[in-house]
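ugh ok fine here u go
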Amino acid sequence: MYTNRNYFFSQCILLVHVVLILNWHSIMGCTSSEPAEFRVLKKTDSGGKQVVVAVGENAKLYCRTNVPWKKCIWKPPRNGVRQLRCEFTRADNIRPMCPSFPEIHFDRVESDKYTNNCAINIAQIKDYHDGDWKCEFELDLPEESEIIHVKERVKLVARGYRYP
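structure:
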């Protein structure tokens, strides 16, 4: 039978093992490719809101990070095997539209309203716009040794009518 001292000692040893195992995971480099300190702070459907747009109307989507970005990439839902995308930079004054999807435009005014925001306009919503849109940022962090990407999804519901 254990005495209080032996019991306390065995519990301490068990705790040390648990701490070592948990730290071993991070020591061996088994961490996510997206550091937790770099993330999307807010997006169009934040807080459980649904973005419902009637077919034929225009829609605005946005994602906002907590750090500066170099490139903002939007990927529409179900866009095939090649995974076409719309890539924008802050300097996109000359060509703020997406060659692969001419209905998608970079919204400079909305993007400049908030720090590190990336907003797009989608003209004339169609049924195939319904689903998870992916926003991805290539971060502008010169002090980092590798390129860091932050990814998030924005759910858009396209309906034949405005209200569900």
